[in-house]
From TrEMBL:
Keywords: DNA-binding. SUPFAM superfamilies: AbrB/MazE/MraZ-like. It comes from Parerythrobacter lacustris. SMART domains: SpoVT_AbrB. Residues 10-52 form the SpoVT-AbrB domain. This is AbrB/MazE/SpoVT family DNA-binding domain-containing protein. InterPro entries: SpoVT-AbrB_dom, SpoVT-AbrB_sf. Gene3D superfamilies: 2.10.260.10.
Length: 85
């Protein structure tokens, strides 16, 4: 295993948090799955929060008479120096 680091637990609201030293390289703001083994070890696994893509292949054309249609595009010039009303 790698080099051992010491973290400290503390109360944070209704939870207990553990500080992870920055030298480990964990990025702030990530989500983690937390598991506690019967032997007392706590295991952290990073959760993949990458956005998922949605496929519309299954519903395309399923709306009778109301399929997807291209909307006309109209380019409108605007003076961005003046606020809108």
């Amino acid at each position: 295993m790698g080099k051992e680091h010491i973290g400290k637990s503390f109360k944070s609201g209704n939870s207990v948090a553990i500080r992870i030293p920055a030298s480990i390289g964990v990025e702030a703001g990530r989500e983690w799955e937390v598991e506690r083994n019967p032997d007392g070890r706590i295991i952290l696994k990073e959760v993949d929060t990458s956005p998922t893509k949605i496929s519309l292949d299954g519903i395309y054309g399923s709306m009778r008479g109301r399929g997807l249609k291209r909307l006309p595009f109209e380019h409108v010039e605007r003076d961005w120096s003046r606020p809108t009303e």
